[in-house]
UniProtKB/TrEMBL annotation:
<dbReference type="InterPro" id="IPR009506">
    <property type="entry name" value="YjiS-like"/>
</dbReference>
<feature type="domain" description="YjiS-like">
    <location>
        <begin position="24"/>
        <end position="56"/>
    </location>
</feature>
<protein>
    <submittedName>
        <fullName>DUF1127 domain-containing protein</fullName>
    </submittedName>
</protein>
<dbReference type="Pfam" id="PF06568">
    <property type="entry name" value="YjiS-like"/>
</dbReference>
Length: 71
């Protein structure tokens, strides 16, 4: 069963379409940048943060969900 955690007012027509594209693009860019920055760290630096390399993608997606909401 699905639950709505956030309800957003959506614009109709082309304005809503392009606004949605803009948000999706910004979300994807945040994910890519977060992955890039975390991959630049050494394994030791990640361990100091309490992270493992296998968690990087999940962390990036969680950061995007926190900022833009889950899709």
């Amino acid at each position: 069963m699905a639950y709505a955690t956030e309800i957003r007012a959506q614009k109709a027509g082309f304005a809503g379409f392009f606004e949605g594209l803009k948000v999706r693009f910004a979300r994807q860019m945040l994910i890519r940048e977060t992955i890039k920055e975390l991959n630049a760290l050494t394994s030791r630096e990640l361990a100091d943060l309490g992270l493992h390399r296998s968690q990087i993608t999940g962390i990036a997606i969680a950061a995007a969900n926190e900022r833009f909401g889950a899709l």
